[in-house]
Amino acid sequence: MSQSPVNYKRHRFPPSLIAHAVWQYFRFPLSLRLIGEMLLERGIVVSYETIRCWAKKFGPDYAARLRRKAPSPNDVWHLDEVVVTIGRRKHWLWRAARACRCGNGSG
């Protein structure tokens, strides 16, 4: 079953703006009103109700794409700790690195 492409015809705003608003709604825990305020800061006046309609119409497609692209976290991580002296004061620097499963034994 092939998916039909997203149709932006008969919309007042450009497709990139609609896509950005819907992406924000599904990607981050933001309310519709907050997304509207964020767009208003950019000089774009959009009501939260318009964003709700966009999310209802275009949301399933964007949500499916986000689920497909979601990275699966590895269960093995390495933590590297380094002590750095700056101005006679010690600072600890931690860095987490994902384990490499290359199969060649180099990491």
Rg, Cα atoms, Å: 22 Å
User: Which regions contain 5 or more consecutive residues with pLDDT less than 50?
Assistant: none
Number of helices: 3
Secondary-structure element order, N to C: HHHEE
Q: Mean pLDDT score, rounded?
A: 83
Work out the helicity level. Answer: 40-55%
Major β-sheet profile: 2 strands, antiparallel
Distance between the termini: 41 Å
**Strand order in space, largest sheet:** 1-2
What amount of the residues lies in strands?
Answer: 15-25%
Supply the helix-strand structural class: alpha+beta
- Principal-axis shape: elongated
What's the total number of strands?
Answer: 2
How would you describe what is shown here?
The chain is α+β, with helices and mostly antiparallel strands. The chain has a domain at 15-69. 42% of the residues lie in helices and 19% in strands. It contains 3 helices and 2 strands, in the order H-H-H-E-E. The protein has helices spanning 15-27, 32-41, 48-69, and strands at residues 77-86, 89-98. The protein has a two-stranded antiparallel ribbon. It starts with 14 loop residues before the first helix and ends in a 9-residue tail after the last strand. 10% of the residues are buried. The mean pLDDT is 83. InterPro entries: IS_Transposase. This is Transposase IS66 family.
